[in-house]
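Morning!

This is the sequence you dropped in the shared folder:
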Amino acid sequence: MPRYLSTKTNSVKTHFKTIIVSDVHLGTKGSKAKEIARFLKQYHCDNLILNGDIIDGWQLKKSGAWKRKHTRFFNRILKMIENHNTQVFYLRGNHDDFLDQILPLQIGNLSIQTDMIYESQGKKYFITHGDVFDSITTNLRWIAYLGDMGYTFLLWLNRVVNHYRFKRGLPYFSLSQYIKGKVKSAVSYVDQYETELAKMAKAKGCDGIICGHIHKAENRLIDGVHYLNSGDWVETMSALAEDHEGNWQLIYYSEINFKEIRDQEIGSFFSGKEEENESTIIPLRKVSFDSPKDDLNPPAFR
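The structure's back. Tokens below.
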């Protein structure tokens, strides 16, 4: 059963064993490249898993544009490797399927591959972007492109609405997520998608499955299988994080209080305290996570 971090403490450590992000869609107007770079600057981890659709090759082929902020995202990852010796795993998605030409590839701390098995605290997770289970994307590519065009328009409308809300001091609102939640066919698709992935995890002898693809962050049990979805950095702006005790949690960018972080860093500077990975905290409004059984076995990747 999920348990919740006390809202009285309003804090969580910034150093994790593993952080997973997906669906950044660099090269598109809707990509929140600045936000995710800022997020990764605040959080440190031993393992960073980029679970597909990090670069949007589909849009770059059509009308997308590569900007300086998109390059800064990868600069941030290189700094994580250099400063914290972070192991980075880039898994292929459907929008960055151009990676098929070089898979698998390993350069230093960076590994580019199709999917992976992640073992930690006695639990085994199958990690995949999730598009392999989407028959539309796999078998009828032209229909997938049409759907992508409609989704691109929805994201444009989302930016217009939120620009209007920002000027009036209103918080961010994901219009596209709201519309998808109201459309019965979309809700049915998401339910079926999650159920099929849970079945796949069982078939592979895994305790859980970690995916992205549908832009819907989730952390729950489905028929005894731990289903985790990291969400996206176009609408939800969310990430999955595992602490060193094996607890998984969803972190939402909109719930991070950066003002308190700055005040905290200033206070630490004047008090002469150096930042430490294990003790640094970052304020959150609310965090939930599941707690797998404790085990002293070290994590393994393959």
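Headline: The first strand starts at residue 3 and ends at 4.

More detail when I'm at my desk.
O.
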